């Protein structure tokens, strides 16, 4: 795998969201890996989770929220773990994935993508932690 290309996307609140854009070839391979992983991991997620999920849309979450209001619920909790994806421990992530994926080739390829680095202004930066946002193996970012 090649290093991802760093792109800064302005947030509405000021700041920037850092994306890692893979090469076309890496994007194709990552999409194939995502198609293998999604049926394995998606059933493990909460039925109440709508973000970045196949066959789920923001409209589904809004409909569910309307149902909760009709049922008398009055509290909403909204949280965002700051810089979460930047701090993901590769070994812990790979350990969790390996509990459900036994194919060593897939596991090795995922690890290589995690460690492929980031290209910033023509300079390659090593990545020993974190998961780049912007590719098929990462959740799509919200532009806020």
UniProtKB/TrEMBL annotation:
This is Reverse transcriptase domain-containing protein. PROSITE patterns: RT_POL. Residues 125-144 are annotated as: Disordered. One of its GO terms (biological process) is DNA damage response. It comes from Streptococcus suis. Residues 1-144 form the Reverse transcriptase domain. Keywords: DNA damage, Nucleotidyltransferase, RNA-directed DNA polymerase, Transferase. GO terms for molecular function: RNA-directed DNA polymerase activity.
């Amino acid at each position: 795998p090649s290093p991802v290309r760093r792109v800064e996307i302005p947030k509405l609140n000021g700041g920037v969201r850092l994306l890692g854009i893979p090469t076309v070839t890496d994007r194709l391979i990552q999409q194939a890996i995502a198609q293998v992983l999604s049926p394995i991991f998606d059933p493990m997620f909460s039925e109440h989770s709508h973000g970045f999920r196949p066959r789920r849309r923001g409209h589904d979450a809004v409909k569910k929220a309307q149902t909760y209001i009709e049922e008398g619920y009055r509290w909403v909790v909204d949280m965002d773990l700051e810089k979460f994806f930047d701090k993901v421990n590769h070994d812990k992530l790979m350990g969790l994935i390996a509990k459900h994926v036994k194919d060593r080739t897939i596991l090795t390829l995922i690890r290589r993508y995690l460690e492929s680095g980031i290209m910033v202004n023509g300079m390659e930066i090593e990545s020993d932690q974190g998961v780049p946002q912007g590719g098929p193996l990462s959740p799509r970012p919200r532009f806020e």
